[in-house]
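User: Good morning. I'm curious how 2-acetamido-2-deoxy-beta-D-glucopyranose would be positioned relative to this chain. Could you predict the structure with it bound?
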Amino acid sequence: MSLYVLAGFISIIIFWFGLRSRKGKGIKHIRGPPSQSFLFGHEAALIRQEEAGSLEYQWMKEYGTTWRTRGVFGTDVLMTADPKAIQHVFHKSGYNYTKKTSQNFVGWLMAGPGIATVLGGDHHRHRKIMHPAFSAPQLRSFLPLFQRISGKLSEKWKSELVATGELDLMMNKWLSRATLDVIGEAAFDHDYNALDDGGRSKLSKGYENIFKDVEFQPSNAVILFRASWDYIPIPVLKLFRYLPGKPFTRLRNLNNLFRQYGKQILREQGPAVDAERKLDGKDVMTLLIKANASADANTRLDDEELIAEMFTLTLAGHETTSTTLSFVLYELARHPAYQARMREEIRAARARVIARGGGEFTTEDLDVLTLCVNAIKETLRLHPIAIGIPRVAVKDDVIPLSRPVVSTTGETVSEIPVKAGQVFYASFSAYQRLPEVWGEDADEWNPDRFLRIETAKQPTSVGVFANLLTFSAGIRACIGWRFSFIEMQAFLGELVETFQFHLPTEKVEIQCAPAGIGMVPIVRGKPELGSAVPLRISLVQ
Ligand code: HEM
Ligand SMILES: *[C@@H]1O[C@H](CO)[C@@H](O)[C@H](O)[C@H]1NC(C)=O
Ligand SMILES: *[C@@H]1O[C@H](CO)[C@@H](O)[C@H](O)[C@H]1NC(C)=O
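Assistant: Good morning! Here's the predicted structure, ligand included:
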């Protein structure tokens, strides 16, 4: 630990003058909560809040939809839930607002130079290479896979229910294994075998709790050390992968473990692609291997990027979806009347399928399950797993606001000039609770709001769909959002038709604990359980 303290203080001394020279410029006229600590600003309070996002909601009530907080080392952070400001930074500015190194580099240490961590032109190249794998028709072709894996999960639960009638289970752990199998097959034609081995595989174990282990409740020393990364040149930062200490060894071990899997998958799949069997394929594996072989630098991925890409997709593509699905089922358990309506809707659709001769639901069948679609949207709105994302201005700019705020001197501010280096933080969770956008009951889980709100007609549109920011927005928005959405539709169709979901026998409270830019569900008072959404299920009568 002393290493962190030392490194933290060295970086303070080195960059003290740099920071001082920035004083007097910037966003001092924007109101915000007073800072208790020069060194930590609000950073420690934010990362240690009970419920992820609750401080932001409180500040938003007090200061309006845009406010100023303090980061580590006395820096100013422009925090906002304002849709126009977020639209400007995420949708309209291209790479002129970049990822914040101290946030991004944890991902780099974990996955390497994959699509989620590379910047600027490199990112453009990765995105172009991956794009064909995420087109709507390509993704619809995965529906049978989603149905096969959700069916497999369903069979496992059914066989346990025969004996007991009811079953208490850790919903997120089951779903995480199922979604790991899904991404393995969908992206790499590879069976991670996570559902069958009951979570005993090295990979399921390696991923388990990774976000909590690495980002949850960091010590003061780690907070300072991490913040200092924003001032350290990237080549030096890359050496940090050799650092001792818990989060770093945890990241490194997972990275090493995945490399073994990645190499094995490449050995399995490489010959198939080389044999031109899939030369026209738009699946991820074919695209990646072709990119690796490309002679054109604009469409090429080197060996390190190739493995990083595979790791990134595996990581970004499973726990995100399983956590969101766990929250849908948790909310359905809390809202049995809605759950019953949803089941009726699914049964009616099933009757239509049987009438036309049977088979599985098609994407068209799933898309008209309005109550199911709305339950997914509402859960994405109220329980965004990334509660907000920081960006850093690359150049001087002016950020427009849709909702003016009152400055420290009482003036009305409807645009905010910022200097290069200004940290901007979009609070997705606060935006998604704005009463003006979502209604007076914005703090409640009520999917029927989507029957009355037409998101397409809302004045400022953001994000990738339904005016939600849960998948982020703009050129770095989640590439897998549609994949995830269809996967969730397929799983809910299967699971809600077959099972009833109840709150667990033992009364527990779910806490949405902050972890980095994200949120991890844990049982209140029992963080040692790791990420946890316990529920009880029974067979539908
Ligand atoms: C409910 C499920 C999901 C949620 C809420 C979600 C959310 C997000 C968010 C917030 C980002 C932006 C991160 C940042 O800028 O730091 C992101 C990026 C990304 N997501 Fe997802 N995601 C989900 C599912 C998936 C799936 C299923 C895949 C892959 C099949 C995927 C692949 C990616 C990739 C590759 C990126 C990086 C994009 C880039 O930087 O260009 N995600 N996701
Ligand atoms: C980014 O900034 C440059 C330089 O000021 C400008 O020319 C360019 O149009 C900006 N890009 C976007 C997408 O706004
Ligand atoms: C990727 O390209 C490099 C350099 O051409 C080559 O050595 C390597 O074997 C390729 N990797 C795969 C998995 O095909």
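Residues 7 and 20 are 20 Å apart (CA to CA). The domain at 2-539 is CATH 1.10.630.10 (Cytochrome p450).
Let me know if you'd like a different ligand tried.
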